[in-house]
Amino acid sequence: VFSFHNVVEKDYWVVNLKNMGNTLGHSASAYWYTSIVDSGTSLIVGPSSFISSVTSGINVKSDCSNQDSLPDITVTIDDTTYQIPSSKYVIKAQTIFGSTECILGLQGANSPIVILGDVLFQ
What we know:
Elements: E1 14-15, E2 17-22, E3 27-29, E4 34-37, E5 44-47, H1 48-54, E6 73-77, E7 80-84, H2 86-89, E8 90-94, E9 100-104, E10 106-109, E11 113-116, H3 118-121
Parallel strand pairs: 4-11, 5-10
Antiparallel strand pairs: 1-4, 2-3, 2-6, 5-11, 6-7, 8-9
């Protein structure tokens, strides 16, 4: 369940993302980044170093065999922390050969913006 949060900048649905991490104890401050809520983006995308810190210790096997043992991702907006289980942040994609492949639903980019996409809202 997603709570009410004040929009900091209405043009892009900017929110006050404080930090992200995982339940293995790895986290990263989002203080320096603009954070946008975007239901039109499938993944959570952010600066590569930020996403790397958030996903430290998480290794999604492409055959999906370890999905149930992966830690939760934590997202703190204002003073509310959300936990995203692996069932939501691991994306099962169909390959061109008809098999299923699992991929991580968080992606690093060369950008100072964190985009909180559908992985957060599922």
